[in-house]
Amino acid sequence: MRVDVNRLAELKILTQKLNYAFRDFELLNKSLTHKSYANEKQGLCLKDNERFEFLGDSVINLAVSRYLLSRNSGLSEGELSSVRAQLVNEQSLARFARKICLGDFLLLGKGEEVSGGRVKPSLLANAMEAVMAAVFIDSCFDTAYEVILGLFKETIDELTTKRMVADYKGLLQKYCQAHVLSNPVYKLVSEMGPDHCKTFMVQVHILGEPYGVGVGRTKKEAEQTAAMQSMEQLHARTKLTV
């Protein structure tokens, strides 16, 4: 389907947020077409963005992996995998999508529109993957890499810097002992993915209250990240009460 003038104007606003000028706007439009919309417009023979999601997931993973290695941070393979898992997951991708108001540009069916599809984390994350696939197809990997870094770089730098600092589980244990708190309890929230490539989500509980959440390729990595986030929350509370 050719992109009409009004839709083209909308898409040009998005390209400014992405800092990338598309040569073929039909690719960008397809990346934003949810299956609910395509199903309602069957007479137009529209293609939805699901196949682009598949490609975009790989493009983002490769771009993040390349940048992590280029930083020469000294992190181990497991730590690098943990940082990448924190970035390339539904919650994180949806957060990046919100930064560029991606939900405003989605083409949704009436039912999905009414049910709040524009703010659903799953739809936003999938759309982010699809858009990066569209950038890749429209240009090349090096260009897609720069577009992804434009959105991800600051967060990657923060995460890798924090991961290089310390054993956060040990630090959290010492903090709780020093402040007469109960020992932190690490609860497994979910396991995602096939057996050979699982992603774990863990949350810390202190005195029965939920604190930081961590994601990792192993439970240990997820616990370290959850402990790090818990330390940040505890320090923030301490500042507020001083």
Give the CATH architecture of the largest domain: Orthogonal Bundle
Adjacency order of strands in the biggest sheet: 1-2-3
Helix proportion: 55-70%
Given the C-alpha coordinates, what overall shape results?
elongated
What does this protein look like?
With 242 residues, the chain is mostly helical. It has two domains: 5-163, Orthogonal Bundle (Ribonuclease iii, N-terminal Endonuclease Domain, Chain A), CATH 1.10.1520; 168-241, Double Stranded RNA Binding Domain (2-Layer Sandwich), CATH 3.30.160. The chain contains eleven helices and three strands, in the order H-H-H-H-H-H-H-H-H-H-E-E-E-H. It has a three-stranded antiparallel β-sheet with strand order 1-2-3. Helix 4 (50-70) packs across helix 5 (77-87), helix 4 (50-70) crosses helix 9 (141-163) and helix 8 (121-138) packs across helix 9 (141-163). The longest helix is centred in the middle third of the chain and has 23 residues, at 141-163. The protein is elongated. The protein starts with a helix and ends with a helix. The model has no long low-confidence stretch (mean pLDDT 87).
Task: Draw up the topology in text.
Layout: H1 5-18, H2 25-31, H3 35-40, H4 50-70, H5 77-87, H6 90-99, H7 110-114, H8 121-138, H9 141-163, H10 168-178, E1 185-192, E2 199-206, E3 209-216, H11 219-241
Antiparallel strand pairs: 1-2, 2-3
Helix pairs in contact: 2-8, 4-5, 4-8, 4-9, 5-9, 6-8, 8-9, 10-11
Q: What labels would you give this structure?
A:
242 residues; mainly alpha; Ribonuclease iii, N-terminal Endonuclease Domain, Chain A; Double Stranded RNA Binding Domain; 2 domains; three-stranded antiparallel β-sheet; 11 helices; 3 strands; 62% helix; 10% strand
